[in-house]
Design a protein that fits this description.
Layout lengths: L2 H17 L10 H11 L1 H4 L13 H6 L4 H9 L4 H23 L1
Helix pairs in contact: 2-6, 5-6
């Protein structure tokens, strides 16, 4: 099969998947998520979301206890673009993973 034919078939498959709403979204950018968090959230939560809140817990600690991070952040990310939302969730997943790793050690 020629390269041109493979390219056409791949393009057609992508178009069909897009039409069906199954296109793979672009990968989230954790660097964008970090920038968004620092601009919008770090004032109250610090850059790593570890600043103690009035009840003694931190944002990262609260999120680590939640099974669905995107759902937990949904009310705070409503006004963000899709790219900002995905990036923020990825950044927070990284922070939560680091928090859980430290908690185990």
């Amino acid at each position: 099969m020629s390269v041109a034919r493979i390219t056409v078939l791949a393009g057609a498959a992508f178009c069909v998947a897009s039409a069906l709403g199954q296109a793979t979204p672009p990968p989230a950018d954790a660097a964008l998520g970090r920038r968004v968090f620092i601009e919008r959230c770090a004032k109250c939560h610090d850059e790593n979301a570890a600043k103690p809140l009035p009840d003694g817990t931190s944002l990262v600690q609260r999120l680590a206890a939640r099974p669905d991070l995107a759902a937990a952040l949904a009310s705070r990310t409503r006004k963000m673009t899709e790219a900002e939302r995905r990036g923020l969730v990825l950044y927070m997943k990284n922070l939560v993973t680091n928090f859980r790793t430290q908690a185990v050690q």
